[in-house]
Amino acid sequence: MFGHGRLAGTGYLSILPVDQGIKHSAGASFAPNPMYFDPENILRLAIEGGCNAVATTFGALGMVSRKYAHKILFIVKINHNELLTFPDKHDQILFGTVREAWNLGAVAVGATVYFGSEESGRQLVEIARAFEEAHSLGMATISPPITPSICVATRWSTAIWAGRG
Amino acid sequence: MGRAGLINSGGEFGGESDTKTAVRTAIINKRAGGMGLISGRKAFQRPFNKGATLLHAIQDVYLNQEVTLA
User: Tell me: the pLDDT tens digits for A73-110?
Assistant: First the structure.
């Protein structure tokens, strides 16, 4: 991952993440620029934008992996909250397996844990197991532990990212 | 850099001031010893070319050797 994109060889990463299609619904995410309803354009943006890698969903990457897996590095976001059901839920659930991410050509997987939520214990165990498998397949792991502006270091992540979702 | 790389996220789309905000976040991340920026909505909720330009602006912070560790 450190060897691709405009930041290749610098030790820094610039990643384009798009999982809001599930998390905030596609309508809310892509209405400002409807061209991204076609996931191929997400990958084109990551390439044109000089990113080290693109992080998005199983579905988006799987649809275009034959065409792009050798052109831009894939990170699969393996769990999501989703607002497609009613009433709304606030839980991160797995949408696929690490082996599936590996099979579609991804070099890394990313997963979110909502620290402090009632579900965080279950999420931690799920993701620890998933990351163990990813590491055994030679993949990197990235986790955004989402808490209000606080970043919690997790012992099983290659890298952590801090944010507010 | 520490033992675990810290990547900061860009946050939601905020309009024309986004490039400034994203570059500021990148500078803070780099000066604090971070490992990069992950920026989505600021890049894809605007026209394609402007999104690519915003990503380049972030990367320019990391390519600029005058931005150093604090």
Answer: 999 999 988 777 788 888 888 999 999 999 999 999 99
**Cα–Cα distance, B61 to A124 (Å, whole number):** 34
* Structural domains of chain A, with CATH: 15-161 (3.20.20.70)
Contact state of B44 with A30 under an 8 Å Cβ cutoff: yes
Question: Would the CA dihedral through B6, A51, A74, A105 be positive or negative?
Answer: negative
User: How many other β-carbons are positioned within 10 Å of the β-carbon of residue A19?
Assistant: 23
How far apart are alpha carbons A93 and A117 in whole angstroms? 13
Q: Residue A88, Cβ neighbours under 10 Å: how many? A: 9
B35, A159 in Cβ contact below 8 A? yes
Average pLDDT value for residue range B12-31: 90
* A contacts of B36 (beta carbons < 8 Å): 7, 12-15, 52
Q: Given an 8 Å threshold on Cβ–Cβ distance, is B63 in contact with A36?
A: no
Contact B55 A51 (CB under 8 A): yes
Structural tokens at position A14: 């610039």
CA A113 – CA A124 distance, rounded (Å): 6
Residues in chain A closer than 8 A to B58 (CB atoms) = 14
